[in-house]
Amino acid sequence: MTKKFNLYILLTCLLFSAHAQQQTSEQVIALFPYQQSVSVQSSLLKMDSWPSKEWRNLFKMLDDDSLKLKATYTVDAYVHHANSNAALVPATTQQVVNGLKQAKSFYAKDYLIQLLGALGSEIGIAPLTKYLKDPVFVGSAARALAAIGSDNAKATLSSALLKAEEPQKMHINAALAHMQFKLPEMKIEDKKGRIGLVNFQDPRYLAKVQEQMEQAKEPVTKRNILSQLEKVTSVAALMETAKYLDDPVLKKQAASIMARMALRDNSLRGRGPRAVLEKALPLISGTDSISLNKLLKNYLRAMPYDEVITAVSMSDEERKLGFEVLFDGTNLDKWIGNKKGYALEDNVIVTHPELGGGNIYTAEEYSDFEFRFEFQLTPGANNGLGIRAPTKGDAAYEGMELQILDNESPIYEKLKPYQYHGSVYGVIPAKRGYLKTIGEWNQQTVVVKGTKIIVVLNGQVILDGDIKEASKNGTADGREHPGLMNAKGHIGFLGHGDVVRFRNIRIKKL
After folding, report:
1. Residue 2: in which H helix or E strand, if any?
2. pTM of the prediction?
3. Nearest Cα to Cα of residue 324 among 372, 359, 385, 391
4. Angle CA 88–92–95, to nearest 5
5. Which of 245, 359, 433, 481 is the least buried, fewest Cβ under 10 Å from its Cβ?
6. Residue, of 414 and 25, whose pLDDT is higher
7. Residue-wise pLDDT tens digits, 9-61
8. Distances in Å between the alpha carbon of 113 and those of 62, 102, 119, 148, 300?
9. Whose CA is closest to 366, among 487, 256, 234, 283?
10. Half-sphere exposure (CA, 13 Å, Cβ side) for 57?
11. Which range marks the domain in which residue 41 is found?
12. What interhelical angle do 68-83 and 52-60 show, nearest 10?
């Protein structure tokens, strides 16, 4: 009796644990839209074993204007997840077929029809066939069958074409033309003359696509050829695709291809790629345009302006003067705080707001010093340099903060003078107008001796003041700054939710 009772308790606990771990459709969609796939990966894995009830609830949300976008993000992510594991495709396709049966709105039906094409399973052919007779959905259904691309899908389209009338006939013809189009086979030889499979990253593949685009006359053919560029990941392919951003027929397709190129490989960086991606951003359209647009915005926000950044070593002159390296591009050993929010990437420190941002501080405390560093702003970026600060509390008041700010951005047009870049926040204003263009590296020196502060930006003195003198009749912002006269403290970079980069950080004790 005791053993049976214990077994009953164990099974109950296991069932309770499984129920507790399962996420409902409402809980999952709350995670979307997301910035990093790692934040939703565990939920996608749990969706593998979802009961039909949760799938019905999720697809029902596609008919609700207040929920459909989050539901779309969720389904998009799961379909991508399923396509990466062939074993999941049949069951996922069947769930989408079931969702299409219950869909009521145009948005939900059109979206789920397109997903059947994206999944590429034969299971989707039968439910798509009936939509070839529907004047509203025939285009989406025909394109989905073309995306499946099998002999059965082609036969279904060919059979429907015999019975179709305009405008359905036009859509089916276009889909069949897409299926029949093939980029001429390109044989690639290695150094020993052996012929192998096409390597999409081989420059000759890109050259072949360029040649075909120049020869193509019909819009459908051009679209088919342009779609081949999405297989290539290189700056050259990105810039080639960008040529079609001014083409009235191809610009939206080109913009979406460029966005997916960039999101697939973060090695596409530098001023040229940034410029064309910014041009593509407003042109992105289609069912997934909202999620794709958001992801590309976040990508551009964090995208490095530099092609390659090398680690910087201290000059012999600085070494003779007694400077010490705090950061040379190789490690963050001399810093404490949120090292996830301030990560070492490409030999620079990069702030990551999505990972908490926050602050990092020198492990050591300093009293009087000369501090040299370089920083690179992104549009509208806001950060700060904490001086003689504790590691807890607001450094602007518990110590003092020098502004690090893109104060030329329109969003800061109503700043107070004591909020300009380089100002001792709330206490002493700095001169404005000496920041370099966004994306360029600024050089800054801060000299702190007693109550006197000097800030030199790109060779120009923008602040030369005395905090004791400036605050004797009250501070400029009218607030208490209890840490203003601290004798010593940490030096820190103080995040305000924006991407900023730092490098080449040195200090000399005075």
Report:
1. helix 2-21
2. 0.60
3. 372
4. 155
5. 433
6. 414
7. 444 443 334 444 556 766 655 655 554 455 567 777 888 888 888 889 989 98
8. 13, 13, 10, 12, 31
9. 487
10. 13
11. 2-180
12. 130
Q: Which helix (H) or strand (E) holds 343?
A: strand 342-345
Q: Stretch 117-126: mean pLDDT, rounded?
A: 90
Q: Which has the closest alpha carbon to 210: 186, 241, 187?
A: 241
The answer to whether residues 353 and 254 belong to one domain is no
Give the pair of three-digit tokens for residue 97: 């077929």
Core vs surface per residue 238-273: b (16+ CB within 10 A) or e:
bebbbebbeeeebbbbbbbbbbbbbeeeeebbbeeb
Picking from 149, 164, 180, the residue at the C-terminal end of a domain is 180
362: CATH: 2.60.120.560
pLDDT per position as a tens digit, 164-184: 888 788 888 878 876 765 544
CA distance 246 to 416: 42
Query: In the block, which residue shows the tokens 């005791």?
Result: 2
Residue with tokens 């030889």: 189
State mean pLDDT over 255-282: 86
Q: What is the DSSP pairing of strand 342-345 with strand 335-337?
A: unpaired
Mean pLDDT of the 133-139 span: 87
| Cα 127–Cα 132–Cα 134 angle in degrees, nearest 5 | 105
Helix intervals (H) in 120-167: 125-129, 138-148, 151-163
pLDDT at 224: 81
DSSP 509: E
Mean pLDDT of the chain: 84
Contacts 24+ apart (CB under 8 A), 3-11: none
Segment 368-407, tens digit of pLDDT: 999 999 999 998 999 999 999 999 999 999 999 999 999 9
Last residue of a domain, one of 243, 274, 302: 302
Buried b (16+ CB within 10 A) or exposed e, 460-485: eebbebebeebbeeebbeeeebebbe
Contact indicator for 238, 269 with CB cutoff of 8 Å:
no
* Angle at CA of residue 348, ends 344 and 349, nearest 5°: 55
Look at residue 189 and tell me if it is in a domain: no
- In angstroms and rounded to an integer, the radius of gyration of the C-alpha atoms of the chain is 29
Check if the beta carbon of residue 250 is closer than 8 Å to that of residue 244: yes
Calculate helix-pair angle for 203-215, 235-242, nearest 10 degrees: 10
Report the C-alpha gap between 278 and 265 in whole angstroms: 16
